[in-house]
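Folding Query — how this chain folds
Tokens — whole-number codes for backbone shape
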Amino acid sequence: MKNFLLLGAVIIILFAGIIGFKKQSVLTPTNSSQEQVIPTAVVTRLATQVQGQVKTVPLTISEPSNNLVTSTSSVTVKGITVGNADVSVNEKDLKSDAQGNFSTTISLDEGENIIAVLAVDQAGNFVEQDLTVTLNSGAQ
């Protein structure tokens, strides 16, 4: 039992070291006193690439346009990714068709709304894209 726990601890330490090494190597100095930090999702993707598991998953959102201002209380989110992908739009789960098309309607709250679209292919590779849509009930 102790050997099993020790092995688990060693694996966790090695994995943390790989991620830490990758995170340090993706910092880009902007000047001598500042560093630009790459988002965690990118670091995680790079760590997964080291393990040889990542392929690019295409995702194009055709509707709505980013930074849309609307007076309508719902919006249709349409796009295309790989065929038969698991797609999530603001945690509303759906599946793309065989050609990769997906569509769903979501409700908007008054003001700024972030629409998060996540697509995961059958191998577990993923891509996420965020859009901002503003509901202004007084807009014409």
